[in-house]
């Protein structure tokens, strides 16, 4: 097993294009890193839910916002808005959407073996 990894997102192992989104995923040992660009008007419940079903996103997300703004509301009623420079964690059971007219670029990280519904079904 290697101890050092680097991979450019331009050489992504996977590219997913669900509605109003693009995700470039690189595999780094037992971690996947994703560069995700969400277009204005993107909302989980409108763009992803029709493909994966459920009442809310059941994936946990750990990431950093590079540009744009996103709002997340959890099933428990708590809300959070994130923007450039913010690191975030969204627990399973949430809806999220882009705020404003600027695309939102984020980088997310997850241990391999996690199966995030939006990326499983959306090509």
Describe the overall structure.
The protein has 123 residues and is mainly beta. It has one domain: Jelly Rolls, CATH 2.60.120.10. It is built from 3 helices and 9 strands; from the N terminus they run βββααββββββα. The strands form 2 sheets. It has a 6-stranded antiparallel β-sheet with strand order 1-2-3-9-4-7, with no helix packed on it. A 3-stranded antiparallel β-sheet has the order 6-5-8, with no helix packed on it. A hairpin with a 2-residue loop joins strand 2 and strand 3. It is globular and about 45 Å long. The N and C termini lie far apart (30 Å).
Task: Name the descriptors.
3 helices, 9 strands, Jelly Rolls, single chain, 6-stranded antiparallel β-sheet, 3-stranded antiparallel β-sheet, globular, 123 residues, 11% helix, mainly beta
The CATH class label is Mainly Beta
What fold name stands as the CATH topology? Answer: Jelly Rolls
Radius of gyration: 14 Å
- Measured between the Cα atoms of the first and last residue, the distance is 30 Å
- Tell me the count of domains: 1
CATH architecture name? Sandwich
Q: Indicate the percent of residues in helices.
A: 10-25%
Q: Please report which band the strand proportion falls in: under 5%, 5-15%, 15-25%, 25-35%, 35-45% or over 45%.
A: 35-45%
DSSP strand count: 9
Element-by-element helix/strand order:
EEEHHEEEEEEH
Write the layout of secondary structure elements.
Blueprint: E1 14-16, E2 21-28, E3 31-38, H1 44-47, H2 49-52, E4 61-67, E5 69-74, E6 79-82, E7 87-90, E8 94-99, E9 104-111, H3 117-121
